[in-house]
Structure formats: structure tokens, C-alpha cells
Amino acid sequence: MSNDYMDLFVEEARENIDELIAGLLRLESEDASTAGHTINELFRFAHNVKGMAATVGLDPITLVAHRSEDLLDGYRQSGDKPDSPTNDLFLGAADALSEMIEALAAGNDPLPNNDILAKLEERVEKSESTETEPIAAAETPVEPTPEIPLPAIVADAPEPPAGTTRLAVQLVDGCALAG
User: Fold this and answer.
1) Comparing C-alpha atoms, which of 74, 71, 49, 72 is closest to residue 62?
2) What separation in angstroms does the CA of 110 have from each of 1, 101, 171?
3) Rounded to whole angstroms, how far apart are CA atoms 45 and 67?
4) pTM of the entire predicted model
5) I need a labelling partner for 32 at 20 to 30 A (CA). Which of 82, 138, 142, 158 fits?
6) pLDDT values of the chain reduced to their tens digit, one per residue, 179 residues
């Protein structure tokens, strides 16, 4: 991986982690009725770090960001606000991510933070085991999907196995990153 990409990763990761820490500190003083927006932002910052780290092959960073994202997603889904010990855990994870990014910026391999990772894993498992069944949503009528003509290359493809859905994506000429 070129240094330009790694430098860009470090810069972007620092920005996202700074935003993550600022959001976590803000979350401490918010009440449950306003915390949802902040939790969505925190999830996005953790998701960004996870995706960027995975793209450049930095597994220790990817793992901590991914488990933070998983735990944040539980709060997004439930609408609850993390308690103080959980928020402290999130701050510890953000600090661990920051330390790994700084190690990388100094030319060193980021070392996994197994302590934080284990605490995140434990908290995710605990929250998953205490979840209740979601309330069934009222059934709404499903509108029929309009028939869209398929390009010849797709129309000639074999039928997919039963229980699967065929998805055809047609890109606009000249779209960015078509590959």
C-alpha cells in the first residue's frame, strides 16, 4: 500500500475518531430523548473507521471499530442511551483506536488492544442476550414491483435458484468508479 493512501487513511481516521470522542462526551450530558441523533452520528464515525481500516488491511483497527459499531447499533435499534460505564467503554475504544492510528502514523504496526476488544465483545454478547423480541409491525400491503426491461445480457442469464432474487444494476455512462 502506498504511503499516500496510508497518509490519507491516518488523516481521515484521526478526523473520525476526534468526532467520535466529541460525540461521546456530548452524549454524556444529553438526555435519552435527544441521544438518538448523537448515537447515529457515533455509529457513522465508527463505521467509517471500520471501513477505511478494512480497505487498507488494518485488522486490529477494523476489529475494535467493528465491535464498537455493533454495540452502538444495539443502542440505535433499541432507542436507549448507553449508561455511564458503557459510555466509558466507548471512550476507551476510541482511545485505543487513536493509539493504533498514532502508532501507524509513527511508522509502526498497530498492535491489537485485546483488553478493549474483550470488553466490547462481552458487552455486545450481553446486550444481544438481553434483547427482547421486537413488536410485530402492522402488515402493510405490498405494492407490486413494476416490470423493468432487462438488458439483453441479463435477460439471457439462467434463472436464479428458487428463493433468490435477481438484481440487475445498470450504471449511467460515465459514472465515477464504475468498476
Assistant:
1) 49
2) 15, 7, 38
3) 13
4) 0.70
5) 138
6) 557 788 999 999 999 999 999 999 999 999 888 899 999 999 999 999 999 999 999 999 999 999 999 999 999 999 899 999 999 999 999 999 999 999 999 999 999 999 999 999 999 888 877 654 444 444 555 666 566 666 666 666 677 777 777 666 666 677 666 65
Joined grid coordinates for residue 74? 444495539
Cell numbers 486490529 correspond to 60
Residue in the block written with cell 442469464: 157
Amino acid, single-letter form, for residue 103: A
